[in-house]
Here is the input.
Amino acid sequence: MSLLTELHEEVANCQDCVLAQGRKNSVPGEGPENAEIVFIGEGPGFHEDQQGRPFVGAAGNLLEELLESIGLRREDVYICNVIKCRAPGNRDPLPEEIEACKKFLDRQVEIISPRMIVTLGRFSMERYFPGAKISQIHGQPRKIGGIIHYPMYHPAAALHQPKWRQVVKDDMSRIPQLLAQSDSIAEVDLPQDTEQLSLF
Ligand code: URA
Here is the structure.
């Protein structure tokens, strides 16, 4: 069994927070173990919970469209979320739920060892850029431990607020070039250090 499949099974059996009680399915993530890019959203919504797959609702359609615009299919990338089970009524994830799921997200990144992590929305941004403001740092790559970290608005934001659609499209359109020129992206030593946030 592959390391990712093993991890996905652990997620399916996880009882580490209250969200386990309300789920129909856990939504560990999907995509190839050798993906170059990992996209990290917030958490499963209704459709994701029903199907056990990430980004299959309206935001997922837009994500697929955005991927297509840079010549990628969803099968080419790994897609997951900060929390792996749906929060009731799609409310924001609670700190203890994010903390309970952190071990899974960290292992996903470790196993896949991508060249780039794209955070979609503020909850996944917060994991790598604590305290930062998405309006200030979206579209700005930073290299952390050799991996390009690239914060973007969540596709759902573009669905709700048409003015952000072009911003999301523009940020997505830069990804191929960032990968091609990754050597020129500055390494940030301690992103967890709030001092670093003045950089943004
Ligand atoms: N679907 C997901 O899987 N994650 C999100 O963050 C939004 C929709």
User: Anything to note?
Assistant: Residues 95-112 form the longest helix (18 residues).
